[in-house]
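Methods — Computational structure assignment.
A single polypeptide chain was analysed. Its primary sequence is given first, followed by the predicted tertiary structure written as structure tokens.
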Amino acid sequence: MRFLRKIQYNAPVVLTFTFLSLAALLLDFATQGKSTQLLFCVYRSSPKNPLTYVRLLGHVLGHASVSHYMNNMMLFLLLGPMIEEKYGSLRMLAMILVTALVTGLANLALFPNVALLGASGVVFMLVILSSMVRMEDGKIPLTMVLIVILYLGQEVYSGLVAQDSISQLSHILGGVCGGLFGLLLSRSASRKKKSRAPRSSGSGETNSPAPQEPEEASPPPRERKPQQTNEAASSPQETGQRQPDEGASSQQETEETARQEERRQRREARKAAKDRGETGEKQSFVSKLFHKISAYSDGRGDDGDWN
């Protein structure tokens, strides 16, 4: 499944054409040639029959045998994806339809009693067109010259000498269509290339684009004024009335701080006095105890005062 997901339908027109041709071949086998005679080969018929116009385009899908199909599709699948990738699917489809129409009309005009089928004309169109892919600025690739000589020369010789069921005229007309398509597409590419390049005047100076008018400068945004506080927005009279209030408040804070400091000093003084009194009592008790012990040791008895 992973392998199947990686397969890409890279050339829609080429691949669809190949599958439709295969379906036409299988249908030919299933109907013993009736479907091909009805839809996939071109021959002279009544203009009132709508299938006549279908066969003018559909004859490129029909093939007489498996080998006929294989020979055409191998070259078609080899050259078609490159052409479709370069020029696009719509142009590829248009070139196939035009080649089919030209070869079909030529067969009706020159060989009215001969049925024509197969994608050989489309294949020769791709052969010549592929040799002109690198054709730019009016230069003619030597590869195109050699291909024209080999392929189209062989078809001209076979048409004059060989006696077979192959339509050399379709091959030649397909090659001519490919050459015309190559010229038109190369000229279109050259015009686009020149239009993108900067144009120069006769004096050799490059025409620069007209200067654009400077845009009018927009006025700078207005600065937002800070909102006035109640104090700033008040009048001088209100400010003067508030000043005594503020002074009285600060005086009250100072007095409160002084009172707190005075209370703190009083607490520290009482604590220090209490510590001194306890120390004095301890010292008096110790001295009395020492005096008592000394009296006993001297034999004076208990005449001391413990209070």
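Note: DSSP finds eleven helices and no strands in the chain.
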